[in-house]
Amino acid sequence: MAIPVVDSDRYDSQLEAKRERIVRDFSRFAPPALEVYPSPSSHYRQRCEFRVWHEGDDLFYAMFEVDPESPKRKAVIRLDEYPVASREINALMPRLLDALRGNDALRRRLFQVEFLTTLSGEALVTLIYHRQLDEAWEAAARLLQEELGVMIIGRARKQRWVLERDHVWERLEVEGREFVYQQVENSFTQPNAQICRAMLAWARDVTRNSQAGDLVELYCGNGNFTVALADNFRRVLATEISRTSVASARQNLAANGIDNVTVGRMSAEEFAAALKGDKGGRRVAEWGLDDYAFSTVLVDPPRAGLDAASCRQLSDYSRIVYISCNPETLANNLEHLTRTHRIMRFALFDQFPWTHHCECGVLLERRD
Fold it and tell me: What residues contact residue 337 under an 8 Å CB cut-off, 6+ apart?
């Protein structure tokens, strides 16, 4: 991987290059003007992971950069700071290393550290080892947790030692309202919290005044969009395959006092079969699919995008909100979706500055 180089003076030009690329690559769909949402130019990632490199008595954070001329060779890059990461992570990085260097119970065979922080000030640190953890590790880790003012988790083969709790609580203000999210260690959360706020505000805007209809959401994760969009609809049915994410989504709905949402654990493919009546069972019966009047579908798929069958399924809905982390697969899917739907809104969210990656949002409405 390439290590992002942060140069705030060049941020506007790198964002403009992304805008030009997206406009060019999607021009064949004749979308409306692209809405562009910039990120902070530095300290925007709320979660990061680093390898821990040991050299004699010293140890430091490291990432690896692949040699383009010899892909099997990787250069070790020492990181004393990481401007991409949140200010909380940068403040914790040297303090954690200082505490580890003189403590054999904590540093021995430690090979990776993961940080998870929030805009609301919470921090969780996961220490990952090539050895089994014992009571000596626990005692030292509890002292470290108190010293740093963070929560700590230890991981090793077939071990997960949670000292306090395995999650943080993020608080995001969107359109003057605060939404609360449980974010669980080692599960997916949006890494750029400020861009996440922009995405939630955009999604609320494009689905406003929809209370007469219902929303179905595929790949709902921990309920990131579900929570923010619930009051725009009469009812919401959200599905997700990850057991951890489903549990977290339900926690987040309860924490926000939302009672018009049902979250079901099921793959998008199984759910499509359930909608067609090809899949039954207790879970499907409990949802009462016949009682819904789905006017909108929201989909936030993985980088691989949607297969042809899923695109056909989406075409059944009057309105589609498509959140994409991969413009290439988004363009492929739009080849199918624009046969039946017209692009009404199109947005670029700079989720990952200083990389070629970007997030897009598309609102499609069925053609007359």
Answer: 311, 314, 315, 320, 322, 364
pLDDT digits (tens, 9 = 90+) for 62-92: 998 877 777 677 888 999 999 999 999 999 9
Burial 316-348 (b: 16+ CB within 10 A, else e): ebebbbbbbbbbebbbebbebbbebbbbebbbb
Amino acid at 44: Y
Q: 3-class DSSP state for residue 219?
A: coil
Q: What is this structure's pTM?
A: 0.93
Distance CA 359, CA 195 (A): 9
* Residue with token string 């998008």: 268
Three-state SS at 145: helix
Beta partners for residue 66, in sequence order: 74
What tens digit of pLDDT does each residue of 200-225 get?
Answer: 999 999 999 999 999 999 889 999 99
Which residues belong to the active site?
325, 359
